[in-house]
Structures are given as structure tokens and as C-alpha cells.
Amino acid sequence: MAVRPVPAGRAAGAGCAIVSRAFPALSAALVVALIAAVAVITGQPWLFPSLGPTVFLQTVTSEEQAARPWNTVAGHAVGAAAALIALFLCDAQTDPAALASGTLTVGRAAATAVAIGLTIAGQQLIRAQHPPAAATTMLLTLGALQLTPSTAAALIAGVALAAALGEIARRLHPKQRDLPATNR
Length: 184
What we know:
Layout: H1 8-42, H2 51-60, H3 69-89, H4 98-101, H5 106-125, H6 132-141, H7 149-172, H8 174-177
Organism: Sphingomonas jeddahensis
Pfam family, one: TM_HPP
Protein name: HPP family protein
């Protein structure tokens, strides 16, 4: 039985494939760990559920528009603003939090529906589609995050940190190196 040598290019390609597959998980874990560390050190809730899908987009589908910093920051800002508007339009801002109370009021249900529509319309209007921002919208309309100045500051800080760290991860992603400069 003859043994054939592996062509030089193929061995390097296998290593690149491993790095390309491992990079998203490792970089996502690092980005979330850094945000969590800053949150723990500052004592502020800068890490919240909708940042998970944001980091996923930035590290797994790094070539997509939705993974870019503009889409991340503007998308979450539109989602938060839509939630605020909808809660006041539906007079639901003082209704009990749906998940904590185990009860979904008509006001919170209506506010959630209105806010999701506003989020999508607003994101399309400014070309900042970022699906994870719809989760931010729902966290606010369902009462999981309270509408307070400290919550607003935490949202801004968490999203800004995710956008910055995610952009670093996005640009370091092996797929990004193969894209033309206009797609980065």
C-alpha cells in the first residue's frame, strides 16, 4: 500500500478551516466575558439578554450588514425608543412586569405588538436592521427591564461595548479577510 504525501496547501487549509470554525465561539465567549467583567466591576447591568444575539451576529455572520456597528447601535436605539413610545401610547408603563408577575396585561401585549412594528419600521427607515434589537424592545415592553435612567444608561453602555468589542471580533474573523474592502 503506497502512502501519498498531503499537498502543502491542503494541510494549511485544514488548519484554517479549524480556526474559521472555532473563531466565532471563542470570540463570542470573550466578548461576552469582557462585557460581563465590566458589568461586575462597575456594578451596572451592562449585560442583558439581547446582547447575546448581537454578539452571535458579529462573530458567526460577521459579513452581514446587521453585524456592523451602525446597525448594532442604531438598531438597539430604535428598539428602545419604539418600546418607550409604545408603552406610553398604550398606557402600559406602570403595568406589572409580565415575566415577574406571570401575567401579561392587555396594555403590555398591545405595547409589545406596536413596539415591534415601530422597531422594524424605524430600522428600515434609517437602514439599521438589527434583529436582536427586537429582543431589547420586548425586554422593555414586557417589563423585564424597567424604564429608568439607570436602565437607559446600562442599555447604552452595554450596546456600545458590544458594538466596539464585536467590531474588533468581526474584523478579525477569518471570513472577513477574504472579503473585498468594500464589504468589511
